[in-house]
Design brief:
- The chain is an all-alpha fold.
- Helix content is about 55%, strand content about 5%.
- The protein is built from 14 helices and 3 strands.
- Helix 1 packs across helix 4, helix 2 packs across helix 4 and helix 7 packs antiparallel against helix 9.
- The chain is globular and about 75 Å long.
């Protein structure tokens, strides 16, 4: 991995020969940080992005060395980013980059930095100067779609098979929607699927090899296997053999979902499929949902049907089960129904 992208400031030429200059000292620390990121399996893209964010912070704050970043400087930088109109997510990414670097510096080189610079460094990114994302209804778009809403969109897409102007496009749209819901995949994972990723003979009903799975904490793509549940194997088999060859010349590429000219379906194109369906189905704007909300819906519906939370975690590809817990939404009757089921199980066991 090329660590040169972490040289945040140019080396100072012709400085005294007694030890390293502060510039050289900083560059050495940053190279070691890059090596640490590589050992921690951070993707090169993540490391490059972190370096760019730290570089931008130093430049905008008119600082020379990373150890000059303090909690007050980070707070001031956040206010500057707010004035520039950057989103909460973007501002948090700047804080994450600085936080990651300082976690390494504080744990591994605090004593060395104190000896060389005379400064005692500490983590400058705190809860008080990090932008907070409020998971309110406007941000989270409320509860995920109900089973009824999912079925309504599915029926509309099936109806289009007979009424649409292009049968193959209508069939592709149906399979995209059903695959996203039944597998709980991320949209980016789905559009990067190839035909060769479908393994119909693997497992009980076939499995899908998700090669471009989302990694956690900057670790890069992480692959996983997703089962074809609830008849998805039959739907995908029909699509691959009868629909996919008609959408575009398959010899050009092996993408599973393509447009009419054979090019891979884009993220925007997949989102447009759902948006047009919601408009045609006359679903109110406050009740509409995104493709990502289908992922929440599938997790919630499987949990309500009794699937173990760990199994749902594996299906969604989460590293931490606490993330999966945020995907599971239950309605107002869930507690009462769970208690009733518990009582019935207890009575059955008592009769034995």
């Amino acid at each position: 991995m090329d660590h040169s992208n972490l040289a945040l400031v140019p080396a100072a030429p012709d400085l005294p020969s007694e030890g390293d200059s502060l510039f050289d000292f900083q560059e050495r620390l940053l190279r070691q940080y890059a090596e640490y990121c590589e050992c921690m399996n951070f993707s090169p893209k993540t490391v490059t992005g972190y370096a760019a964010h730290v570089r931008a912070a130093l430049r905008d704050l008119k600082l020379t060395y990373v150890w000059e970043l303090t909690a007050e400087e980070v707070r001031r930088y956040n206010l500057l980013l707010v004035e520039r109109g950057l989103t909460v997510g973007t501002r948090r990414s700047y804080c994450t980059a600085i936080k990651s670097l300082f976690e390494f510096l504080v744990e591994e080189h605090a004593a060395e930095i104190a000896t060389v610079t005379g400064l005692t460094i500490s983590q400058p990114v705190t809860r008080r100067n990090t932008p907070r994302i409020r998971y309110c209804e406007s941000f989270d778009r409320g509860a995920p779609p109900s089973r009824g809403q999912v079925r309504k969109v599915s029926r509309l897409l099936r109806k289009r098979l007979h009424l649409g102007r292009t049968y193959e496009v209508a069939a592709r749209n149906l399979v995209v929607f059903e695959t996203l819901y039944l597998t709980a995949m991320r949209t980016n994972e789905l559009i990067h699927l190839d035909v060769e990723d479908l393994h119909f003979g693997k497992g009980a009903a076939g499995q899908i090899h998700v090669r471009i799975g989302k990694g956690s904490r900057g670790s890069g793509p992480r692959s996983r296997w997703v089962p074809m549940l609830d008849g998805l194997d039959e739907l995908l088999g029909w699509y691959v053999h009868q629909v996919r060859p008609k959408l575009g010349p398959s010899r050009r590429q092996h993408a599973l979902f393509v447009s009419t000219d054979g090019k891979r379906l884009t993220y925007k194109g997949a989102g447009g499929i759902l948006e047009r369906c919601l408009t045609e189905a006359k679903i109110r704007k406050d009740k509409r949902f995104t493709l990502h909300r289908l992922r929440h819906a599938r997790a919630s519906h499987l949990f309500a049907d009794g699937m173990n939370l760990v199994a749902i975690q594996k299906l969604l590809g989460h590293e931490f089960i606490t993330t999966t817990q945020r995907y599971v939404h239950v309605d107002a009757t869930f507690v009462a129904q769970a208690h009733k089921a518990m009582v019935q199980r207890t009575l059955r066991q008592a009769r034995r």
